[in-house]
Design a protein that fits this description.
- The chain folds into 2 domains: 52 residues, no CATH class; 199 residues, no CATH class.
- Helix content is 5%, strand content 41%.
- It is built from 1 helix and 14 strands; from the N terminus they run αββββββββββββββ.
- Strands 1-2-6-5-4-3 form a 6-stranded antiparallel beta sheet, with no helix packed on it.
- A hairpin with a 4-residue loop joins strand 8 and strand 9.
- The chain is globular, with a radius of gyration of 29 Å.
- The N and C termini lie far apart (77 Å).
């Protein structure tokens, strides 16, 4: 609060006025000894100290968040103007970010720097923009265990749940000869991970018609070398809600 330099006589006058208006002199901090510096006197009632609001507020979050992560961000700025490094746990680095337009959100993959890549702590945070204050709020956290051996995260933005809103399809790569990865879908509107599958020798992409996921995977028969699967299977999944997916179609194509 800005302090005003007042003369001792003005300070004593303010005390008399406050007491006459019913103030309790035993609790009034303006009753300082006459030897106190006049600069410690409170400002008169007509002076209002400017409010200061930190950009990042350390308030309690309704969801579990990793230690050192803010729950809200007060500045009402567009997702592209956010400093993602201020929205992740202290001491971690931003690995990737994905922005959705509807709803407006930013999904941030972070990683512990300098650690063994097979044992690094990782995670994904979802931040959404709201109309009121605070403008941005952390709405979901997807931790990645350091025991999973994730080497990197990639992803893309598309509507795969069929609700007309953008989702984020992620692939957390764990390596190996089969290019293994943990694939997941974040429904940003619901702030929830609605799909998760570990997959080797394959990949998952958005399906445009019907809207959903296209799962492509090599099919091996007994005796097939790893280089040469017998066929390739494409399975299209559509979302029913409540983390439930239905097989819309399945097609197997012989290799070569």
């Amino acid at each position: 609060m800005r302090r005003l330099g007042l003369l001792l006589a003005i300070t004593l006058a303010a005390v008399v006025t406050a007491t006459a208006c019913g103030g309790d002199p035993t609790n009034d901090r303006s009753l300082a000894s006459s030897s106190e510096d006049a600069s410690s006197a409170p400002p008169p009632p007509s002076v209002t100290a400017p409010a200061t609001t930190p950009t990042v507020s350390p308030v309690a979050s309704p969801i579990e968040l990793p230690p050192g992560t803010p729950a809200v961000f007060n500045d009402d700025v567009a997702a592209a103007d956010l400093d993602a490094s201020a929205l992740i746990p202290r001491g971690t680095h931003v690995e990737q970010t994905w922005i959705t337009a509807e709803p407006e959100a930013v999904v941030i993959a972070y990683v512990e720097p300098g650690a063994d890549p097979f044992r690094a702590d990782r995670g994904t945070l979802v931040w959404r923009r709201f109309g009121g204050a605070p403008a941005w709020r952390a709405v979901a956290w997807l931790p990645t265990s350091s025991e999973t051996g994730v080497l990197g995260v990639d992803g893309l933005v598309a509507d795969v749940t069929g609700d007309g809103l953008q989702d984020v399809l992620l692939a957390a790569y764990t390596g190996g000869s089969g290019a293994c990865a943990r694939w997941s879908v974040i429904d940003v509107g619901a702030a929830d991970e609605v799909f998760a599958r570990d997959l080797c020798d394959g990949r998952i992409d958005p399906s445009p018609d019907p809207v959903g996921l296209s799962v492509d995977q090599a099919v091996y028969r007994v005796g097939d070398p790893h280089c040469c699967p017998s066929a390739f299977r494409t399975t299209v999944l559509t979302y029913d809600g409540d983390r439930t997916w239905t097989v819309a179609s399945k097609d197997v194509t012989p290799a070569g």
